[in-house]
Design brief:
16% strand, disordered N terminus
Length: 431
């Protein structure tokens, strides 16, 4: 696939898998596309890839459907063994089958942790900016939320461990995200050991969402929090899933790794009678992805990394705009404060963007972020070009155009909550 822009010409050729293929998802009730039904918008407001899942996964699903009997299904022992083998092979982390708790999703795991390990009105810590369910889970379970703000310097987000240590004195649970969504960080061993030390000293349980652990770039290595030491494993609930990696989110298959028997029992007690079992097709998708998906994943990462680099160069040509260093995930977090805009939502309305309902949070004026995904439908380069063109009004005063003269299709997404991600005027950008 060849795509030419005013910045450069890029050619991407996959050796085996066609990530440039455009998949028409209309008529499938796809959540990300339904939000903009009938509008010429490429929606990137939710972490949901438009690439086809690995061919071997699709083949396995067809074979299971052809079986014709779709009754109740227990946790397949083969899948449990496969997950344990994968964790040891990738991370040197030895986990027993009894340590796994199969879940219909990672977000239920966050909510279960708040209920299982905190009493009403206990405090739950999370770092911000953060994926919004980290902020809603404590509220849904009537727990207090303590937000510890991460630091942004030289295009890189870092954790404020001093602020975390202070917050931990009054908390029962830390909701951790590693890799860190949406800022694209892979937390270092030093950072994770600092977190572990603080939580051990203050009797704080860690619930670590590691769903993006396969989506790493530039030879970064993921370190599961619980793999650091037996002591840290004893206070940690790890949430993982193949859904983001292999585009299986609609099947609802994930798992918690809880090596402390007492914590595992409390977690399961909260599930009883409420959290549904994973369906047979979810089990099949998980198994096939982990068993056969690694060749596809290697090419996916190469493709996404190329998109990331292209996007960074495109947006880097606009003075006043900063894109964070993306080490993992397929989200780029942009700081538009340098554009000198008094009212960013109103400004982005000018080229046809919809203004979200937002408010300034309790922390006052901060850099204004835009979250941009670089895992588009079909050719990734078109997204980077569209993103660059959509932001050109900051300099030209007019709407953005693609090289062929067509108007940039853009959309501003209404956040699920007014205090989505930061508790202050956040904007999610869809191109």
């Amino acid at each position: 696939m060849l795509y030419s822009t005013h910045i450069q010409t890029v050619c991407y050729v996959s050796r085996e898998f066609d990530f440039d293929e455009i998949i028409d998802r209309s008529g499938t009730s796809a959540t990300k596309h339904e939000k903009y039904r009938g509008r010429d918008v490429i929606p990137l407001w939710v972490a949901d890839m438009d690439f086809k899942s690995p061919p071997r996964v699709i083949e396995a699903l067809h074979a299971r459907i052809d079986h014709g009997v779709y009754g109740y299904t227990d946790n397949p022992p083969e899948l449990i063994d496969l997950v344990c083998e994968r964790l040891e092979r990738l991370y040197g982390w030895q986990v027993g089958g009894q340590d796994l708790v199969i879940l219909p999703g990672v977000v239920p795991g966050l909510n279960l942790a708040c209920r299982a390990y905190c009493e009403p009105d206990d405090a739950v810590i999370t770092m911000v900016p953060i994926y919004y369910p980290f902020m809603t889970a404590p509220e849904f379970s009537h727990r207090r939320l303590i937000k510890v703000r991460s630091r942004f310097k030289d295009k890189r987000w870092t954790l404020d461990l001093d602020a975390l240590e202070e917050a931990a004195r009054d908390a029962s649970l830390l909701l951790l995200c590693n890799p860190y969504n949406p800022v694209g960080r892979v937390l270092t061993r030093e950072e994770l050991e600092g977190i572990g030390r603080i939580c051990l000293e203050n009797d704080v349980i860690i619930c670590s969402d590691e769903i993006h652990c396969d989506l790493l770039f530039d030879d970064h290595k993921h370190i599961p929090t619980a793999s650091l030491s037996a002591e840290i494993a004893d206070i940690t609930v790890t949430l993982m899933a193949p859904s983001k990696t292999f585009n299986l989110a609609g099947f609802g298959g994930s798992y918690a790794v809880i090596q402390n028997r007492a914590l595992r029992r409390r977690f399961k007690d909260e599930m009883r009678g409420i959290v549904p079992h994973v369906g047979f097709i979810g089990y099949e998708a998980m198994d096939a992805a982990y068993r056969y998906g690694d060749p596809w994943l290697r090419e996916l990462l190469s493709y996404l990394q190329s998109n990331r680099d292209f996007l960074g160069e495109a947006l880097g040509s606009i003075p006043g705009l900063e894109m964070n260093e993306v080490e993992a995930t397929y989200l780029a977090w942009l700081d538009v404060s340098g554009l000198g805009l008094n009212d960013p939502p109103a400004f982005f309305d000018r080229p046809g963007l919809r203004r979200p309902q937002t408010r300034r949070g309790a922390h006052g004026r901060r850099p204004r972020p835009l979250a941009v995904g670089f895992r588009p439908s079909g050719c990734g380069r078109r997204f980077a070009c569209a993103a660059s063109a959509a932001l050109q009004p900051a300099q030209s005063g007019g709407p953005g155009f693609l090289e062929d003269g067509t108007r940039t299709p853009c959309g501003m997404v209404q956040p699920p909550r007014r205090d989505h991600l930061l508790g202050r005027n956040p904007l999610r950008f869809a191109v």
